[in-house]
């Protein structure tokens, strides 16, 4: 399979994961009273999900340039 096509498919999968992570049912789970390290659980979840998506995209894009 073409390497750029595989990279594109992985990025689409990350996009779909992002849609799932930032969709209402999961957000509602974390919209509860309380905090995590002094930050609202909803804000902590949003930041963690956003950070995870950025890291995954960076790994996929950086891996694209490597040759095996």
Polypeptide structure, described:
This protein is mostly helical and 68 residues long. The protein has a domain at 39-68. The chain is built from three helices and two strands, in the order ααββα. The longest helix is centred in the last third of the chain and has 24 residues, at 41-64. The mean pLDDT is 91.
In short:
With 68 residues, the chain is mainly alpha-helical. It has helices at residues 3-21, 24-30, 41-64; strands at 35-36, 39-40. The chain contains 3 helices and 2 strands, in the order H-H-E-E-H.
Q: Name the average pLDDT.
A: 91
Percent of residues in helices: over 70%
Q: How much strand?
A: 5-15%
Cα separation of the termini? 14 Å
Number of strands: 2
Radius of gyration: 16 Å
Largest beta-sheet characterization: 2 strands, antiparallel
Chain oligomer state: single chain
Overall structural class, as computed from helix and strand content, comes to mainly alpha
- Principal-axis shape equals elongated
Total of DSSP H or I helical runs spanning 4+ residues: 3
SSE run: HHEEH
Low-confidence stretches: none
Strand order of the largest sheet: 1-2
Topology, element by element:
Elements: H1 3-21, H2 24-30, E1 35-36, E2 39-40, H3 41-64
Antiparallel strand pairs: 1-2
Highlighted features:
68 residues; mainly alpha; two-stranded antiparallel ribbon
């Amino acid at each position: 399979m073409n390497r750029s096509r595989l990279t594109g498919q992985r990025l689409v999968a990350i996009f779909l994961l992002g849609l799932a992570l930032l969709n209402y049912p999961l957000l509602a789970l974390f919209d509860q009273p309380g905090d995590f390290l002094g930050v609202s659980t909803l804000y902590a979840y949003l930041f963690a999900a956003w950070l995870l998506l950025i890291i995954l995209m960076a790994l996929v894009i950086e891996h694209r340039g490597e040759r095996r």
